[in-house]
Write a structure and sequence with these properties.
about 20% strand, Transcription Regulator spoIIAA, 5 strands, alpha/beta
């Protein structure tokens, strides 16, 4: 469904969130993310990707990531997301014809803090071992993001 080319970073997270939210609203319960051409994933991107994976898990769905390099797979494992994502080596036997690259685009300033906060809160939810890495950032963002910007759509 989605293809990450180059770095999967903050700049792609807004597009990722919108696309995943749309697919879930449409009833999609199987996601495939092609990482064969991905060189790097940052914590914001991974936290944004983990949120729909948690939603899918609750409804019996699956988020698969395919073709990860060692560096990318290590990023997934370090944050404990290998227990949440189904990591597969290749796109075979999946139909990759529907894959589309994620668009880069930094969201408006009023959504940037909310995006960062949600992504890192999700990483804390996924694995308690992430707390030393991200708790200070989450605390800072909670104080900076106005309560009206934090509608709970988790």
């Amino acid at each position: 469904m989605l293809k990450v080319i180059g770095a999967g970073s903050f700049e792609h997270s807004f597009s990722l969130r919108q696309h995943c939210d749309y697919l879930i609203q449409c009833g999609t319960n199987q996601f495939l993310v092609d990482l064969t051409e991905c060189t790097y994933l940052d914590s914001t991107f991974l936290g944004t990707l983990a949120r729909p994976a948690l939603k899918l898990r609750k409804t019996g769905g699956t988020l698969r990531v395919a073709g990860s390099s060692r560096r990318v797979l290590e990023s997934i494992r370090t944050l404990g997301l290998d227990r949440l994502f189904e990591c597969v080596e290749s796109l075979v036997p999946y139909d990759a014809s529907g894959l589309r690259p994620l668009e880069a685009g930094v969201p408006h300033k009023e959504t940037t803090g909310e995006l960062l906060l949600r992504a890192h809160q999700t990483l804390l939810e996924c694995d308690p071992k992430n707390a030393p890495k991200f708790q200070d950032l989450v605390s800072y963002l909670e104080a900076e993001v106005a309560p009206t910007d934090r509608g709970d759509s988790r």
